[in-house]
Write a structure and sequence with these properties.
Tetracycline Repressor, domain 2; two-stranded antiparallel ribbon; elongated; 2 domains; Transcriptional regulator, TetR family (chains A, B); mainly alpha; 10 helices; homodimer; 226 residues; DNA-binding; Tet_transcr_reg_TetR-rel_C_sf (chains A, B)
DNA sequence: TTGCATCTTGACCAGTTGGTCAAATCAATC
DNA sequence: GATTGATTTGACCAACTGGTCAAGATGCAA
């Protein structure tokens, strides 16, 4: 299992923690996510995180040894959720349905956890100082595995030839854009993914663009069987 | 003309500056771009910018009143370059050629000025504290104008119906992804846009995906005239 | 050369911030 | 309810950082 600065990447709750410890660590991680995603690592302050979590700075540092430890724990905390959708891509499923489902999940996460998206984006944009090893190991393994599935669909003539990596990058880029640049999206459209109507519209636009882009029908027409 | 914290958005060199002033302001802006894009506003330090520009911190503050003033000047300095490609989208051109050219320019900029891309991304992700007014005024005006062109192409039956805003967002997201997340791209592919081969491959992949996505032929086939 | 404005810098200051520590408080077990 | 370990906090410290200031260095025009 990959870890970040000693923080296990799994979202599993460490078992040896008391009731108070688990409650406080969760409060801290929740507050840290908000703070780090809003201000970045340097801009965040331990004092604000503590205040947001409802405790003193000293007490926060009783639970995490340093600011960097909090940051790593917050990163580890979101990483599983972040990578989960890609894992569900199934070689035996229908390509259109599989990719549509993947895009739907990514947009759902962008809508539900925009802070997680921004935290991750921030980390990677600064050169991924903490999670580069995970990108190079775990993520690369996962992406290589799923790229093979897409290549299989191409070989079977189910989708147009396309470099699977660029397809994956395109899906990541578009879906995360709506979370990371929500301020810009809101400035231009007046809405963002927190609006259910806009979320549905975005999902349809992105899905149909990408699926049509690789030669698939979307939304699926009953034409051939009518 | 829009401005940011008193800094004119135009890249025009102020005319009333001495030779020394112009040289030093440029050195500072260059250094500031590197520093702010790498560490974000909070993480950047005036001292490092000054060192990178080859002068003392005091001297830097002789040219710019504050850290925020440097930041705003750097932002203003890149904004024109950043928005230029969209301005070239021509209603009278061929949709496929026009959009392909736009994507090509965006990728070119991502490849040539990745730091500018990251600086802009950072600013927007933090809520666009400095340039929100520009997004809401200048950018919105430009995007509205170009959306009308795309809508015109749809009405003329030249491209499939698609919300122009989502199309534009998709182009922004994909092209900028390769600059902003270059570390992740490199971790997964071993290459980035600084590699001419990878840049060409990326341009082809993104262009064909998006153009096919809206019902255009790309790369253009001579099929109909053969 | 001289005089003046521009340019440059080191010393310094005040506010912020991550982190330490000893003491106080709380919770659970006997 | 006494004891012991876990939890919580305020006081405090050292490093860093943005910004000021007075003085010196430099460029330039007459």
């Amino acid at each position: 299992m990959a870890d970040i600065g000693g923080q296990t990447a799994a979202a599993s709750k460490p078992v040896g923690l008391s009731r108070i410890q688990e409650k406080n660590r969760n409060l801290i991680l929740e507050a840290a996510l908000g703070e780090f995603s809003r201000y970045g690592f340097s801009g965040a302050t331990v004092e604000r995180i503590a205040a947001e979590a409802g405790m003193s700075k000293s007490n926060l540092l009783y639970y995490f040894a340093s600011k960097e430890a909090i940051y790593n724990a917050a990163l580890a905390h979101i990483l599983d959720v972040w990578l989960a959708p890609l894992k569900t891509l199934d070689a035996n499923g229908d390509p259109a349905e599989e990719l549509a489902a993947y895009i739907r999940q990514k947009i759902e996460i962008s809508a539900s956890f925009p802070e997680a998206s921004r935290l991750f984006a921030n980390e990677v944009m600064q050169g991924a100082p903490q999670i580069l090893p995970i990108l190079e190991a775990d993520l690369k393994r996962l992406v290589t595995e799923k790229s093979a599935i897409i290549d299989g669909w191409i070989s079977a003539g189910k989708i147009k030839p396309v470099d699977p990596l660029h397809l994956i990058f395109t899906i990541w880029a578009t879906t995360q854009h709506y979370a990371d640049f929500s301020v810009q999206v809101r400035a231009l459209t007046g809405r963002d993914l927190s609006d259910p109507g806009f979320k549905a519209e975005t999902e349809m636009a992105v899905t149909s663009l990408i699926l049509n882009g690789i030669g698939l029908d979307w939304p699926k027409e009953a034409a051939s069987s009518a």
